[in-house]
Amino acid sequence: MNKISPRIGSVCRWLMLAPLASFVIYVAVRGISESFDNEGFPEALAVKLELLPIIFPVHMVTGGLALLLVPLVLYLRGTRWHRLVGRITAIDILIAGITAIPVAVVVPVTGISAAGFVAQGITWIVLLGLGIWNIRVGRVASHRACMLMMAAVTSGALFFRIYLGLWKVFGVSEYFEAFYALDAWIAWGLPLIGVALWLRLNRRPPPRPATPRETASAGPAMG
User: Fold this and answer.
1) Which of 69, 75, 134, 200 is deepest in the core (most CB within 10 A)?
2) Cα 182 to Cα 176: distance, rounded to the nearest angstrom
3) How many angstroms separate the CA atoms of 86 and 160, rounded?
C-alpha cells in the first residue's frame, strides 16, 4: 500500500497539470505560428506587423518560446541541463522583453495598455538581470526568487488571453478599451504580486548566531 500511494499521487498531479500544460503549449505554438501565418490578425495587430515587419514577428516567436522555456528551466532545476537551458532562456527573454517595448508603443489600443505592456517588458528584463547577478555572486535563494517572479510575469501572456476570452463571453463591447487597458496590467501584475507574497510568507529566517554560552558548551563536544 505504501508503494502504491506515491504512484497514485504522482498520477493525480500529472492529470491536474496536463490541462495547464496543454494550454501553455497551445498559446506558445499559436503565438509562434502566427508570426508566419497572420492572415487572420485583428486590425490592431495587423497595423503593428505592417509598421514593425521584423520586430513584431521576433517578439511573437521569442515570447512564444518563453512560455515553453521558462517552465522547462524550472523543471530542470538541480540537473546538469539547468544551466544550459537557463542561458538559452535568458537570451530569449532578453530579446522578447526588448522587442515588447516598440510593439507596445506603436499604434497602441490605449495609452494605458501600452504602458502596461512596456512595464511588463521592463519588469521581465529587470528580474532576469537580478536573477543572473544573484547566481553569479552565489545567492542561490535570491536567484530562485527572481526566477519565480520572472515566471509569474511570463504567465501574463496566458492570463491576458484568459481574461480576454472571459470578456468576450461576459463583457460589454462599449467598455472593451477600458478592460483591455486593465488586462494589460493585471494579467502579469496579479501573478507577480501573488508569487512575491508567497515568497515572503515562505522566506526562511536567517540562522540565529550562537550565544557565547552555546559556543563554549559546543567546544568540548567538537573536540
Assistant:
1) 69
2) 10
3) 25
